[in-house]
């Protein structure tokens, strides 16, 4: 069933892609093929392969239980927050929090997670910034 | 003689302190990444690419670092196969079959050192194969016009699927998705924006490094989170290594196996779409047919350890041939290495050998040096790497995630790229669930624009006649191979499917 849904989604994606391709404004300076032809070819391949996936599905993949999906979703939220707050909070603080969260969710104890977080963050800061001179996001505290 | 003098020039380039240091670092990191289950050659190289850039390394040093990681990962994969019966990366899967039984018999040290030597033999001969074969392939490639290149790209996509997934529809889907992603951005020939939906960030197109790191590295983090697999694989198992030198008699009996397997592996590596996993598989199956007279394979036969290890390392070298000579990679990790070249504004392909001989020959010389370093790292010092198997993923995976973020942020300094990377991480996780191979997606995003440009150039040269794509014998030949390469697995898949169960999520990043 998953593959069928996926296939239908793929067909819709292909149609959407083709519509988006038809919206491309042609320039008056176009070559004889133009900017639309290759996207149309791609849309056809995408659509056909999705249709085949929908009609001849593989065995069902193992989906995680609902709890684990929430787990992944929460990790995504944390990463998005990390990306947003990185320039404001500075590298060391933001990274320590994000790494500690991930480590905690992978089964570390709270204390272990905090140590992993701080260790990862300071370790990367020392190796990449102080030793190798990579510029990392600077926070209000200067690191 | 020309080759030898080129090679000598290469050694002059490779033998600087910086390059030797980078090769050593790459070998060490590569072995670590290969040894740790969950990090394979393609993720390993993917994580390090952005770092190589942000450190401002030039083309040759970056390539030396990253190919050392690649070779190193091929060596490292065997360690956990032998000691824990868990392949450290995809190509090391076959090494479990005889390596783990050997370890159970108390011969772990012999198995490790023998496989180290086999890896060395495989990689050594493959590097020579690369030297001899790549310039020949370049001569053929110089005859290619835009229509032939278009056919060659199509061939790469159509054959790549054959081995990386049992379902051809899924690999075609993956390739089309990758090509579609490559279309985002301003069209290079007419200057009109395509699929940008008015978002200025997208005018430059998606940075394929962001896509690669997201698809490979971040999706791995999600897989670990999903399975809550935070404990070290080596935990609770006593790892006894024993003596680290194989007896001469064992080496002697394995020598023909190593040589044959190196040859088979190299061929598998050169063929488009095959790669190291197939190399080790073919090498093992062939040896089993040829020399397994007493039925000892699978029960701890040293030859069953030597064959796949020589095979996968030879394939790793072989896969560099089409990548360097044609600009069309034959496996997952070489696709990632292609991304390095493209980001450094170096176009791989026949012109690489005449325009940037320093890059090519410096790289080849570095491969020889790296190979000797790896032999030294992997036999006397293998104990260090076995300790690393005790590092639990709950510590390792946060580091992987954070290093990925640092690398991508270092390139552009924009949070937008980080968000795109997270998006690709989720996409990678979902696609792995559906058993959709990730390598064609990467290849699509890498080659999409080149493929389209060749198509348009070919047709424009011929005044808009689409038949020009198949009007030379060379391009017809390429198309025929492509179609056969696409259809054969469909026929064979039914046979294979009855024998194997559904590949696990690891299969999507197969090398």
Describe it for me?
The complex is a heterodimer of chains A (143) and B (511). Chain A has 5 helices and no strands. Chain A has helices spanning 2-22, 37-55, 66-89, 91-105, 110-131. In chain A, helix 3 runs antiparallel to helix 4 and helix 4 (91-105) runs antiparallel to helix 5 (110-131). The longest helix of chain A has 24 residues, at 66-89. Chain A is flat and about 55 Å long. In chain A, 33% of the residues are buried. Chain B is mainly α. Chain B has a domain at 2-145 and 211-411. Chain B is 73% helix and 1% strand. Chain B has helices at 2-14, 17-35, 41-54, 59-84, 93-104, 108-141, 146-164, 168-183, 208-227, 248-270, 276-291, 302-326, 332-343, 350-355, 357-378, 382-388, 393-412, 415-433, 439-461, 473-499, and strands at residues 185-186, 193-194. Chain B has a two-stranded antiparallel sheet. In chain B, helix 4 (59-84) crosses helix 5 and helix 6 (108-141) runs parallel beside helix 12 (302-326). Chain B is globular. The two termini of chain B are 34 Å apart. The chains are: A mainly alpha (143), B mainly alpha (511).
Strand content of chain A: under 5%
Helix content of chain B: over 70%
Structural class of chain B: mainly alpha
How much is the average pLDDT of chain A? 87
Gyration radius of chain A, in Å: 23 Å
How do the helices and strands follow one another from N- to C-terminus of chain A? Answer: HHHHH
Q: Provide a count of the helices of chain A.
A: 5
Count all strands of chain B and give the number.
2
Reading side by side through the largest sheet of chain B, how are the strands ordered? 1-2
**Oligomeric state of the chains in view:** heterodimer
Q: How far do the termini of chain B sit from each other?
A: 34 Å
Number of domains of chain A: 2
Roughly what percent helix of chain A?
over 70%
Look at the structure and give the mean pLDDT of chain B: 83
Distance between the termini of chain A: 50 Å
Gyration radius of chain B, in Å: 22 Å
Point out poorly predicted stretches of chain B: 497-507
Shape of chain B: globular
Order of helices and strands of chain B, N to C? HHHHHHHHEEHHHHHHHHHHHH
What percent strand of chain B? under 5%
């Amino acid at each position: 069933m998953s593959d069928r849904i996926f296939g239908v989604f793929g067909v819709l994606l292909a149609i959407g892609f083709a519509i988006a391709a038809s919206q491309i404004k042609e320039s008056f300076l176009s070559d004889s093929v133009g900017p639309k032809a290759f996207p149309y070819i791609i849309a056809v391949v995408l659509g056909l392969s999705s249709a085949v996936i929908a009609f001849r599905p593989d065995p069902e993949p193992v989906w995680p239980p609902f709890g684990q999906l929430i787990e992944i979703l929460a990790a995504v939220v944390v990463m998005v927050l990390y990306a947003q707050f990185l320039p404001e909070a500075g590298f060391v603080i933001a990274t320590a929090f994000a790494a500690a969260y991930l480590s905690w969710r992978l089964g570390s104890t709270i204390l272990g997670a905090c140590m992993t977080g701080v260790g990862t963050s300071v370790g990367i800061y020392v190796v990449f910034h102080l030793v190798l001179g990579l510029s990392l996001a600077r926070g209000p505290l200067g690191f | 003689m020309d080759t030898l003098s080129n090679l000598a020039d290469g050694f002059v380039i490779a033998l600087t302190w910086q390059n030797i240091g980078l090769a050593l670092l790459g070998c060490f990191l590569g072995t670590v990444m290969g040894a740790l289950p969950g990090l394979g050659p393609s993720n390993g190289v993917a994580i390090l690419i952005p770092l190589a850039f942000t450190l401002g390394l030039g083309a040759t040093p970056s390539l030396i670092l990253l190919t050392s990681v690649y070779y190193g990962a091929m060596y490292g994969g065997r360690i956990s196969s032998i000691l824990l019966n868990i392949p450290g990366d995809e190509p090391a899967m076959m090494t479990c079959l005889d390596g783990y039984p050997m370890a159970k018999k108390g011969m772990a040290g012999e198995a490790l050192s023998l496989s180290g030597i086999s890896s060395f033999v495989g990689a050594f001969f493959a590097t020579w194969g690369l030297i001899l074969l790549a310039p020949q392939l370049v001569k053929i490639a110089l005859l290619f016009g835009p229509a032939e290149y278009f056919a060659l790209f199509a061939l790469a996509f159509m054959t790549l699927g054959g081995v990386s997934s049992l379902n051809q529809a899924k690999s075609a889907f993956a390739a089309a998705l990758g090509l579609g992603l490559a279309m985002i951005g301003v069209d290079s020939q007419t200057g009109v924006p395509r699929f940008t939906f008015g978002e200025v960030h997208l005018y430059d197109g998606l940075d394929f490094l962001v896509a690669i790191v997201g698809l490979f590295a971040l999706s791995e983090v999600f897989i670990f989170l999903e399975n809550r697999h935070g404990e070290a694989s080596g935990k609770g198992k006593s790892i006894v290594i024993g003596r680290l030198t194989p007896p001469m008699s064992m080496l002697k009996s394995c020598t023909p196996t190593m040589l044959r397997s190196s040859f088979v592996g190299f061929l598998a590596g050169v063929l488009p779409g095959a790669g190291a996993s197939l190399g080790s598989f073919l090498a093992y199956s062939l040896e089993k047919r040829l020399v397994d007279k007493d039925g000892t394979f699978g029960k701890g036969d040293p030859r069953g350890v030597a064959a796949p290890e020589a095979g996968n390392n030879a394939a790793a070298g072989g896969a560099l041939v089409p990548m360097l000579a044609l600009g069309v990679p034959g496996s997952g990790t070489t696709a990632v290495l292609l991304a390095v070249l493209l980001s450094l504004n170096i176009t791989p392909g026949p012109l690489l050998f005449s325009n940037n001989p320093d890059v090519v020959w410096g790289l080849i010389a570095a491969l020889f040096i790296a190979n000797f370093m790896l032999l030294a790292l992997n036999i006397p010092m293998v104990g260090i790497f076995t300790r690393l198997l005790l590092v639990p993923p709950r510590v390792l995976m946060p580091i992987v995630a954070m290093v990925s973020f640092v690398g991508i942020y270092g390139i552009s300094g924009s949070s937008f790229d980080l968000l795109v990377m997270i998006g690709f991480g989720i996409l990678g996780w979902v696609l792995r669930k559906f058993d959709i191979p990730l390598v064609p997606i990467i290849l699509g995003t890498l080659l999409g624009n080149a493929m389209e440009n060749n198509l348009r150039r070919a047709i424009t040269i011929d005044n808009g006649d689409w038949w020009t794509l198949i009007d030379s014998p060379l391009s017809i030949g390429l198309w025929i191979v492509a179609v056969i390469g696409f259809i054969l697995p469909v026929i064979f898949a039914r046979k294979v499917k009855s024998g194997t169960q559904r590949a696990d999520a690891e299969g999507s990043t197969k090398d």
